[in-house]
């Protein structure tokens, strides 16, 4: 009895206190946690009095030991809690919020931030104790999960106009809200768990505020919309809400979600200004270029880090226009689609397909008060609908707009609130006096919401189809790769794309064309490749033939090329194929077979890329490998080691192509061999070999021919014996030398090889591949008379080779002895020293200036090793009746000029960047710096010349400067940023080297022979 009296007394005191406070300051409400004192707010245009209760704790402060922990239930409080002040924001940069609010033309006092922030604000038209059961709308704010708060919004107008209870919640942000180690130490998602805790609090307490816990709608925008869609997914959120509105949000791909009625939608320019301005560089409004937009695009869409994917997407949105304004606007559209538009459509599709009602909108009106703050090109921007959803037009609380909205906008406020309110009540946004909002169905219906509402279909349809169907299909196909069936077995390749072309190139890497030349097959002719079982992976570069790998690493770094260099191995007889032809398609495209350079000692197929040339010229490109150095060209001059193994490997590759290239869409009757430096030497050597007859039909020898006097080993046995002694082998007989080499490990082969300069082991007369000396073959015209392109650069010994041969300090000047010593590469016989002196005297004369000697040295070595042999090849070939086209390459790649001394012209190998189209490469080999627009045009020009030649035997074609055929007037084409025909290339020195010097040599030898007699 006594207890009942005490309890009654307490209740009377509490009621008395409640009535006293209410009468003085505002509504006082009893909850199970304690008493709240709120305030009254009236929206403009409505008599309804809304009761607001601010800063209500729904969980314990997540501080101290509760940091990085799931939220804990709130505790009761004593006395009357003041619920008239905005709660502290969760920890964030307050100034960013201040700036954001200003940009949105809103006027409010932004609170400070704190870890103690798990509070919510409630706006209800229900009086305390009325026992109403009004729909509840729980707002989850946006801000990229690291900004904003409940206080940035105001729910009283929506509550008044729609007779609903509006709840604005807060949750931990940024690091404190979403940090995760992926394990039990920091499992993450704390901010989302805070939202769940708030929804649980609403279920248990909202009846005290006149709300119906069985009729809860969660709604949010941007990160808040994402949160809404995540609650749709989470089993923890089941039954905590009954309708959902995700504005400008996205959803993970899943069908295991809470199937509640849904509204989702976007604005018509989601990345119109606010988001773009935040992430873009200064001056973006005046236009953007591709280089500016790509880092931002890849940040938000990592799939664009794949250049082939990026190119497809850029073409879809930007076309090929270089216009900076079009790029700017396409960029804005892209980001809007990536981040909001396409995810909203996907969310709608998943929800619809699960059988839940879905309503989609596009907000199409920009608040008039914001237009003056934005460029004229911006449409309805990200967050523009919020002012209308919350009825800021009629706001009379702490959030006010800086300026008045128009009467039409006031009407739009009422319309939007009515749609949202109806949905909260019934699960449908439709109601009396409103434009019919169609449910999202098979035709992807939506409502355009603006000053006038208009239904539509297939929102963002073109880009939606591209991003959700076309692009994934292409990516999937490329990931799977093409599979081609050859007579040796099946190959699985890869799809490649290049810049500036839609063509898909199918690449097949590491295709064996001969047995591995190992064990007893070392220093033997190549043997036919064997069949394999199953599908062979042809997506990885083959190992390089045995060589000093580090040399290629250094050289490619110097050449500003980015490529992963494979390891080396004796097992290296593989080729790479690039074709624009799909497996199974009938095609007979020209075939271009590339033979790499490297002084017959270095290089590999993997250091080149045939995809661009294939795509731009519609040809099949084949890159072959061959044994190098000692293993490829060692010879004793007899049956024990006849030599020329590397050249025979090239023959074997050409034979394989004849038998198999049709499978890849190539025409075995239209094969062009081309190569540079030692590759050019190989091309012209194959022209000389009777074994190569019929294996190719056109030839391109760049900066290297077999007519260089230093190529043919005059006495292979002597060279073999000297090598054997140096490498600690018994040199007493050919058989013992070969037996010694056959026992070496790969490491021992390399150790011995590294003691010799490039080209030390080279071409030998073997009565098989090369039956006679080169000079005899060409003079008798006993060679394959096919159309030929040959040529040089204008500074063949400019830097790359000079740096290799000349020794330290050569850049600062040379003396005559330094300059003369490298002529022994061409005239290695000590008895021919007098010939060296003749050549040196012609070029150097009585010059003593070190700089002049350096420059003459470069010219002299370029002439002796490359220029004069190329001109001789052109002359002999033309004299045989075969068409010949001669060139001089006259433009150095701008990206590597900075790595060279200023005196260097167009160096050895400079043309390769343009022949293989490195300007447009996107595969494994890329330039580390961009080419100029003029250089890109040169790439197209050179590839067109080479491609035309592969097709017709003439480099000429539409849109190209005419390339004259080499005839009696020694015509040639100067190839640079501008092409220009010329005559009599290297005329003065050509006359000396081909007429004067041979006469002097003949006279000298006759004199020596006479004296010996």
UniProtKB/TrEMBL annotation:
<comment type="similarity">
    <text>Belongs to the type-B carboxylesterase/lipase family.</text>
</comment>
<dbReference type="InterPro" id="IPR029058">
    <property type="entry name" value="AB_hydrolase_fold"/>
</dbReference>
<feature type="signal peptide">
    <location>
        <begin position="1"/>
        <end position="23"/>
    </location>
</feature>
<keyword id="KW-1015">Disulfide bond</keyword>
<dbReference type="Pfam" id="PF00135">
    <property type="entry name" value="COesterase"/>
</dbReference>
<keyword id="KW-0378">Hydrolase</keyword>
<protein>
    <recommendedName>
        <fullName>Carboxylesterase type B domain-containing protein</fullName>
    </recommendedName>
</protein>
<dbReference type="GO" id="GO:0016787">
    <property type="term" value="F:hydrolase activity"/>
</dbReference>
<dbReference type="InterPro" id="IPR019819">
    <property type="entry name" value="Carboxylesterase_B_CS"/>
</dbReference>
<dbReference type="InterPro" id="IPR019826">
    <property type="entry name" value="Carboxylesterase_B_AS"/>
</dbReference>
<feature type="domain" description="Carboxylesterase type B">
    <location>
        <begin position="482"/>
        <end position="992"/>
    </location>
</feature>
<dbReference type="InterPro" id="IPR002018">
    <property type="entry name" value="CarbesteraseB"/>
</dbReference>
<feature type="domain" description="Carboxylesterase type B">
    <location>
        <begin position="26"/>
        <end position="252"/>
    </location>
</feature>
<keyword id="KW-0732">Signal</keyword>
<dbReference type="InterPro" id="IPR050309">
    <property type="entry name" value="Type-B_Carboxylest/Lipase"/>
</dbReference>
């Amino acid at each position: 009895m006594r207890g009942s009296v005490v309890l009654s007394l307490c209740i009377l005191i509490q009621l008395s206190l409640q009535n006293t406070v209410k009468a003085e300051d505002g509504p006082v409400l009893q909850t199970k946690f304690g008493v709240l004192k709120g305030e009254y707010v009236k929206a403009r245009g409505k008599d309804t009095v809304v009761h607001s209760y601010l800063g209500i704790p729904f969980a314990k402060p997540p501080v101290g030991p509760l940091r990085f922990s799931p939220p804990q239930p709130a505790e009761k409080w004593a006395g009357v809690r003041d619920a008239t002040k905005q709660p502290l924001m969760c920890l964030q940069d307050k100034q960013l919020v201040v700036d954001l609010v200003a940009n949105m033309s809103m006027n409010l006092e932004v609170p400070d931030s704190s870890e103690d922030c798990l509070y919510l604000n409630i706006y209800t038209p229900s009086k305390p104790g009325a026992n109403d059961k009004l729909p509840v709308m729980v707002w989850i704010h946006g801000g990229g999960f690291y900004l904003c708060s409940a206080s940035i919004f105001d729910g009283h107008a929506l509550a008044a106009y729609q007779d609903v209870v509006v709840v604005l919640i807060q949750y931990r942000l940024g690091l404190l809200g979403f940090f995760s180690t992926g394990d039990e130490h920091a499992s993450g998602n704390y901010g989302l768990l805070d939202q769940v805790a708030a929804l649980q609090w609403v279920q248990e307490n909202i009846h005290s505020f006149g709300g119906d816990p069985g009729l809860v709608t969660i709604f949010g925008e941007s990160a808040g919309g994402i949160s809404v869609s995540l609650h749709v997914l989470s089993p923890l959120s089941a039954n905590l809400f009954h309708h959902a509105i995700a504005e400008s949000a996205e959803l993970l791909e899943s069908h295991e979600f809470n199937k509640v009625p849904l509204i989702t939608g976007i604005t018509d320019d989601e990345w119109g200004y606010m988001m773009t301005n935040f992430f873009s560089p200064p001056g973006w409004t005046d236009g953007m270029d591709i280089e500016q937009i790509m880092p931002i695009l890849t940040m938000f869409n990592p799939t664009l880090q794949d250049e082939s994917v990026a190119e497809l997407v850029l073409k879809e949105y930007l076309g090929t226009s270089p216009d900076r304004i079009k790029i700017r606007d396409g960029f804005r559209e892209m980001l809007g689609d990536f981040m909001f538009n396409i995810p909203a459509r996907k969310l709608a599709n998943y929800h619809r397909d699960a059988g839940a009602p879905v309503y989609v909108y596009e907000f199409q009106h920009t608040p008039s008060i914001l237009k003056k703050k934005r460029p004229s090109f911006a449409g309805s921007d990200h967050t523009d609908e919020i002012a209308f959803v919350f009825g800021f037009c009629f706001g009379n609380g702490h959030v006010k707009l800086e300026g008045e909205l128009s009467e039409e906008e006031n009407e739009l406020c009422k319309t939007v609130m009515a749609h949202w309110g109806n949905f909260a009540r019934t699960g449908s946004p439709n109601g009396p006096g409103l434009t019919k909002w169609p449910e999202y169905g098979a035709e992807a219906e939506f409502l355009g919401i603006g000053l006038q509402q208009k239904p539509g279909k297939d929102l963002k349809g073109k880009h939606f189809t591209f991003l959700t169907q076309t692009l994934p299909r292409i990516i999937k196909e490329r990931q799977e790769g093409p599979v081609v069936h050859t007579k040796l077995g099946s190959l699985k390749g890869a799809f490649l794309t290049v810049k500036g072309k839609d063509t898909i190139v199918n690449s097949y890497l590491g295709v064996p064309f001969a047995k591995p030349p190992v064990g007893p097959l070392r220093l033997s002719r190549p043997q036919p490749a064997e069949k394999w079982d199953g599908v062979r992976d042809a997506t990885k570069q083959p190992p390089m033939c045995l060589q000093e790998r580090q040399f290629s690493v250094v050289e490619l770094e110097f050449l500003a090329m980015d490529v992963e260099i494979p390891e080396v191995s004796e097992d290296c007889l593989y080729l790479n194929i690039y074709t624009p032809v799909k497996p199974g398609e009938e095609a007979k495209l020209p075939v271009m077979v590339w033979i790499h350079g490297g002084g017959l000692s270095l290089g590999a197929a993997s250091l080149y890329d045939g995809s661009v040339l294939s795509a731009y010229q519609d040809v099949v490109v084949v890159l072959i490998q061959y044994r190098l150095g000692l293993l490829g060209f060692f010879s004793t001059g007899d049956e024990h080691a006849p030599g020329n193994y590397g050249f025979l490997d090239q023959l074997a590759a050409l034979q394989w192509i004849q038998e198999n290239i049709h499978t890849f869409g190539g025409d075995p009757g239209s094969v062009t061999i081309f190569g540079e430096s030692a590759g050019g030497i190989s091309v012209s050597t194959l022209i000389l070999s009777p074994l190569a007859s019929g294996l190719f039909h056109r030839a391109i020898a760049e900066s290297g021919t077999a007519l260089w006097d230093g190529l043919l080993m005059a006495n292979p046995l002597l060279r073999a014996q000297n090598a054997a002694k140096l490498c600690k082998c018994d040199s007493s007989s050919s058989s013992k030398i070969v037996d010694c080499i056959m026992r070496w490990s790969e490491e021992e082969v390399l150790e011995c090889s590294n003691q010799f300069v490039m080209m030390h082991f080279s071409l030998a007369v073997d009565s098989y591949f090369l039956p006679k000396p080169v000079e005899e073959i060409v003079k008798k015209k006993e060679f394959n008379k096919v159309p030929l392109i040959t040529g040089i650069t204008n500074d063949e010994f400019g830097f790359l080779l000079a740096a290799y041969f000349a020794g330290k300090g050569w850049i600062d000047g040379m003396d005559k002895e330094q300059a003369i010593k490298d002529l022994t590469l061409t005239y290695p016989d000590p008895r021919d020293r007098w010939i060296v002196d003749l050549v040196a005297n012609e070029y150097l004369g009585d010059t003593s200036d070190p700089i002049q000697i350096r420059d003459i040295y470069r010219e002299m070595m370029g002439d002796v090793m490359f220029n004069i042999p190329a001109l001789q090849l052109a002359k002999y070939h033309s004299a045989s009746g075969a068409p010949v086209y001669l060139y001089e390459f006259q433009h150095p790649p701008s990206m590597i000029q900075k790595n060279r001394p200023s005196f260097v012209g167009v160096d050895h190998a400079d043309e390769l960047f343009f022949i293989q189209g490195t300007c447009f490469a996107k595969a494994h080999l890329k330039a580390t710096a961009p080419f100029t627009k003029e250089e890109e045009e040169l790439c197209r020009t050179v590839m067109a010349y080479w491609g035309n030649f592969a097709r017709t035997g003439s480099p000429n074609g539409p849109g190209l400067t005419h390339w004259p055929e080499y005839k009696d007037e020694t015509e040639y084409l100067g190839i640079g940023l501008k092409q220009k025909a010329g005559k009599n290339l290297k005329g003065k020195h050509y006359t000396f080297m081909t007429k004067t010097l041979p006469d002097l040599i003949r006279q000298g030898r006759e004199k020596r022979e006479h004296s010996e007699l």
